[in-house]
Design brief:
The protein has 221 residues and is an all-alpha fold. The protein has eight helices and no strands.
Length: 221
């Protein structure tokens, strides 16, 4: 295979990565809409559509494997393709967390809201922003941006702690709220895990460029 054909196929894989990121970013946002509006039809739609994301991720992963098998890339090229596979997995897992939020919405059903949702939507907005920027950083090989985005995980962690403490107070003051409060904690936990997945993508960006991850890890201490 000529080098230009190989490079074109590599660019196609990167384009697919951006498409998948856009799909999952939208799912995260729509899962919060379903939660806030108690839109059970939307929640069921998101749950059903998760399979399409999984299938697309598997298709792109298979194309990565085929490129490795047929071209036997080495050094930086091999590192890039392997990193694409890892990033695909992280994106797919973020989609799973969004699906989890939709499932929680179904569990909540038509139960009255425990409280207005404030910090949970903030977490979702931050996760979507970090995810989009992390893929931009990966595709542009921008290690400085990746390190910065990774550090922003602390913002999501702080919001999660705030949500947890507030909901725990509700449960202590009125045991009848335990079920609803627990489910909202599950929502916040899914979003916190999404941010962790984004951090993993950032780590892959640093690894792709440098072959090392210690620069990113050191920045988090």
């Amino acid at each position: 295979m000529p080098r230009e054909t190989y490079c074109r196929q590599l660019r196609q894989l990167e384009d697919e990565l951006r498409v998948l990121e856009s799909m999952v970013e939208k799912v995260v946002g729509r899962s919060l809409i379903a939660l806030k509006e108690r839109d059970l039809d939307l929640a069921h739609e998101l749950i059903a559509n998760d399979a399409a994301i999984d299938e697309k991720c598997l298709d792109v992963e298979e194309r990565c494997v085929q490129l490795i098998v047929t071209q036997q890339p080495v050094a930086g090229d091999l590192r890039l393709i392997l990193s694409i596979i890892h990033v695909l997995d992280e994106i797919e897992r973020i989609g799973d967390h969004a699906e989890g939020i939709a499932k929680i919405t179904v569990m909540l059903g038509d139960e009255p809201p425990l409280k207005p949702l404030i910090d949970i939507p903030r977490m979702a907005d931050k996760v979507q922003d970090m995810l989009r920027r992390s893929i931009d950083a990966f595709l542009s090989r921008d290690t400085e941006a990746a390190i910065q985005i990774s550090a922003e995980d602390d913002v999501v962690d702080g919001l999660y702690d705030q949500v947890y403490r507030e909901l725990l107070t509700f449960m202590l003051e009125d045991p009848k709220t335990i079920t609803r409060a627990t489910r909202l904690i599950w929502v916040a936990h899914n979003l916190e895990r999404c941010a962790d997945r984004v951090t993993n993508i950032c780590e892959r960006t640093v690894y792709t460029v440098t072959g090392r991850t210690d620069a990113l890890r050191a920045s988090n201490y």
